[in-house]
Automatic annotation (TrEMBL):
<dbReference type="InterPro" id="IPR032823">
    <property type="entry name" value="BCA_ABC_TP_C"/>
</dbReference>
<keyword id="KW-0029">Amino-acid transport</keyword>
<keyword id="KW-0813">Transport</keyword>
<dbReference type="InterPro" id="IPR003593">
    <property type="entry name" value="AAA+_ATPase"/>
</dbReference>
<dbReference type="GO" id="GO:1903806">
    <property type="term" value="P:L-isoleucine import across plasma membrane"/>
</dbReference>
<dbReference type="GO" id="GO:0005886">
    <property type="term" value="C:plasma membrane"/>
</dbReference>
<keyword id="KW-0067">ATP-binding</keyword>
<protein>
    <submittedName>
        <fullName>ABC transporter ATP-binding protein</fullName>
    </submittedName>
</protein>
<keyword id="KW-0547">Nucleotide-binding</keyword>
<dbReference type="GO" id="GO:0015192">
    <property type="term" value="F:L-phenylalanine transmembrane transporter activity"/>
</dbReference>
<dbReference type="GO" id="GO:0042941">
    <property type="term" value="P:D-alanine transmembrane transport"/>
</dbReference>
<dbReference type="Pfam" id="PF12399">
    <property type="entry name" value="BCA_ABC_TP_C"/>
</dbReference>
<dbReference type="GO" id="GO:0005304">
    <property type="term" value="F:L-valine transmembrane transporter activity"/>
</dbReference>
<dbReference type="GO" id="GO:0015808">
    <property type="term" value="P:L-alanine transport"/>
</dbReference>
<comment type="similarity">
    <text>Belongs to the ABC transporter superfamily.</text>
</comment>
<dbReference type="InterPro" id="IPR027417">
    <property type="entry name" value="P-loop_NTPase"/>
</dbReference>
<feature type="domain" description="ABC transporter">
    <location>
        <begin position="25"/>
        <end position="281"/>
    </location>
</feature>
Length: 299
């Protein structure tokens, strides 16, 4: 990923520059109930454009449920989810779930990798551009007979896919089945697939899960580079504190479905409620060492 390193260090716009800027995403009073279970309880937060906003919290805190509400997998029980995209303002909770990716340009990856394992690496990125290609075909047989507009759209789709395969260092594996990639490669391919939809906000659900330290470092570089180069917002759910503390501009902490803290990494590190949430009733010794170190509890 060394090609990425050279351009990855550009900082996000500073706090002063960001002050007064309309948030890219505004979540207001989000509540999600499953029968008697309140998975998300009146959560509000904002994500600024060109920033990496992490959503962290212990297992079952409600992080993935927030993503599922934002991306249309769940219809929130209560709440307003406003996306102020360059191409318009969208109330996500009012859009049919299956239209959110295309209309509002919200892209996501999944905690459990969801690629098409039997399709080639390149084909996985072409499929991600299906909507664009269908529009170019005029929803007709144009795709079958390969008329001009469709041909051009198809060429552009392949170019974009190859561009992203180079960025995530998978271009040499373009023709191999996606399922044959090592785990880290599949994670990078998922990010490339999301980016092929040209999102305004990229939601990543535990992208570092299962990665070794070197791969996590490369992931950090990739995400910083995406933020700097494409000027999109990134929402990140992650348990790996080296990733969260290393690249986040802003962190929202959930516990039992409620927001317990909201601030920059320095503020979150010192927040007693966050430390308590991770410690629970247990002793400090029970905290995973990397979490303790990042929260400043242990050297
Ligand atoms: N479809 C569903 N039906 C019933 N309960 C659900 C559903 N989805 C999530 N939950 C519950 O909502 C709560 C929050 O789950 P969620 O997956 O959002 O947590 P999380 O913070 O992402 O956890 P983890 O870090 O373990 O992935 C959990 O108690 C979970 O069991």
């Amino acid at each position: 990923m060394s090609a990425i390193v050279a351009t990855s260090t550009a900082a996000a716009p500073g706090a002063a520059a960001q002050a007064g800027i309309e948030p890219l995403l505004r979540v207001e009073h989000l509540t999600m109930r499953f029968g008697g279970l309140v998975a998300i309880d009146d959560v509000s937060f904002e994500a600024k454009p060109e920033q990496i906003t992490a959503i962290i919290g212990p297992n079952g805190a409600g992080k993935t449920t927030v993503f599922n509400c934002l991306t249309g997998f769940y219809k929130p029980t209560v709440g307003r989810l406003t996306l102020n995209a360059p191409h318009g303002r969208f109330l996500l909770e009012q859009i049919d779930g299956f239209r959110i990716a295309q209309r509002a340009k919200v892209a996501r990856t999944f905690q459990n990798i969801r690629l098409f394992p039997g399709m080639s690496v390149l084909e996985n990125l072409i499929v991600a551009q299906h909507n664009k290609l269908m529009r170019a075909s005029g929803f007709s047989v144009a795709a079958l007979i390969g008329v001009g507009g469709y041909r051009r759209a198809e060429r552009r789709a392949v170019e974009l896919a190859r561009h992203w395969l180079e960025k995530v260092q998978l271009i040499d594996r373009a023709d191999k089945p996606a399922g044959s990639l090592p785990y880290g490669g599949q994670r990078r391919l998922e990010i490339a697939r999301a980016m092929c939809t040209e999102p305004v906000i990229l939601c990543l659900d535990e992208p570092a899960a299962g990665l070794n330290a070197h791969e996590s470092h490369e992931l950090n570089e990739l995400l910083l580079w995406i933020r700097a180069e494409y000027k999109i917002g990134v929402l990140l759910i992650e348990h790996d504190m080296s990733v969260v503390m290393g690249i986040s501009d802003h962190i929202v902490v959930l516990d039992y479905g409620r927001k317990i803290a909201d601030g920059n990494p320095e503020q979150i590190r010192k927040d007693p409620a966050v430390i308590r949430a991770y410690l629970g009733e247990a002793e400090e010794e029970n905290l995973p060492p990397e979490v303790a170190a990042d929260l400043g509890l242990k050297k």
